Amino acid sequence: MAAKRAAVNRGALIGGCLLALLVIVAALAPVLAPDDPRLSSGPPLQAPSRAHPFGTNDIGQDIFSEWLWGARASLVVGLLVTLLSTTLSWSVGIAAGLWRRAEGPLLAVTDLLLALPSLPLYLLVVVAAGPSQRNLVLALGLLSWPAFARVVRSQVITLRGESYIEAARALGAGPWRIARRHILPGTFGLLPAKIVLTLRFAIFTEATLAFLGLGDPALKSWGTMLSWAFAYPLLFLGDVWTWWVLPPALAIILVVLATTWLAIGLERGPDRRLAELIDTFVSLLVASTTRSPLRPGSSRPADATAVRRPGTVSSER
Predict the structure, then answer these.
(1) What is the rounded radius of gyration, in angstroms, for the C-alpha atoms of the chain?
(2) Are 122 and 209 within 8 A, CB to CB?
(3) How many domains does the chain have?
(4) pLDDT of 187
(5) Tens digit of pLDDT for each residue in 214-264?
(6) If you count Cβ atoms within 10 Å of the first and of the last residue's Cβ in the chain, which end, N or C, has fewer?
(7) How would residue 3 be classed by pLDDT, with cut points 50, 70 and 90?
(8) Considering the domain boundaries, does residue 317 fall inside one?
(9) What is the pLDDT of residue 138?
(10) Burial of 243 by CB count in 10 Å (0-12 exposed, 13-18 middle, 19+ buried)?
């Protein structure tokens, strides 16, 4: 068991380091790129050299510069989709778990989106709206939230039945105070794994759609690099594919592996430090903004929601 936990921790550490490296590369792409990826900078199909570490493509563009800017484009799409999807799914899950009147309609929409096949739905939306980065982010972000919304709703329903919630309600605490002081902080432990998995989904799906020709043609991404490479008819007749296909393909594979390792570490790690840190920080922040003063002559808080919980709401489930 100890060896398994150590392996999970090592995997999470490696995944986190790889993602951090991706962020650094994406942020420094304008500095690190030796050439403009949109312009021809050398002979076509030149093998890797000191001037072109990854060689050039069929029109003489530097593949290393394309790869760096592709990391930037993929990360921007991934982060925007993650922000939109996580915010929407968390909000819908909270609303469905707290308000019974909203539960039926929200669950109906959630079940409808879960029943539809994902990739054909993304293809249909992007084709109808037009291939652009904005449309891709909106399509992926607005259609990838249902599964996590149900997870958040289940967590809210579980927290509603806890003894400290019942005690606070019996002492006169209102539903808004209970939600803000106790239920909402108890759901933040779910967010780290959701963020990592959504980032993996967004980067991989963006590369897939761009490979199919549905990405933004004005942007360089790993998917568009693969799309243009496979459009070259003589790609596999020589060794051109080794410096044209492998860099973006290996980058996508490494991102998928890194996010998977990190998500497993967050879900199965022995102490889940990142999730616990976020949960504790949010709980302290909410408590500091809603703490009520003591009544004169009383040693207990006047607010009924100040009833101490029998234990902190842990994200280990």
Answers:
(1) 24
(2) yes
(3) 1
(4) 87
(5) 888 778 899 999 999 999 998 888 889 999 999 999 999 999 999 988 888
(6) N
(7) low
(8) no
(9) 92
(10) buried
Pair of tokens at residue 129: 């709206």
* Contact by Cβ (8 Å): 148, 90: yes
What DSSP character marks residue 56? Answer: B
Q: How far apart are CA 145 and CA 91, in angstroms?
A: 10
Q: Indicate if the pLDDT at residue 293 is higher than 70.
A: no
Q: Let me know if residue 205 belongs to a domain.
A: yes
Q: List C-alpha distances in Å: 59 to 135, 177, 210, 289.
A: 28, 63, 19, 59
| Helix/strand/coil for 61 | strand
State yes or no: pLDDT of 199 exceeds 90.
yes
CATH number for the domain spanning 99: value is 1.10.3720.10
Q: Does the structure show a pLDDT above 90 at 120?
A: no
Q: Say if residues 77 and 199 touch (Cβ distance below 8 Å).
A: no
Contact 188, 279 (CB under 8 A): yes
d(CA 69, CA 34): 11
Q: What is the pLDDT of residues 67-95, one digit of tens each?
A: 999 999 999 999 999 999 999 999 999 98
From residue 21, how far is each of 18, 86, 179, 205, 209 by CA, in Å?
5, 23, 38, 21, 24
In this structure, which amino acid lies at residue 1?
M
Is residue 197, in this structure, part of any structural domain at all?
A: yes
pLDDT value at position 305?
A: 39
In a domain, 201, yes or no: yes
Range of the domain at 287: 2-306
Q: Which residues pair with 56 in a beta bridge?
A: 62
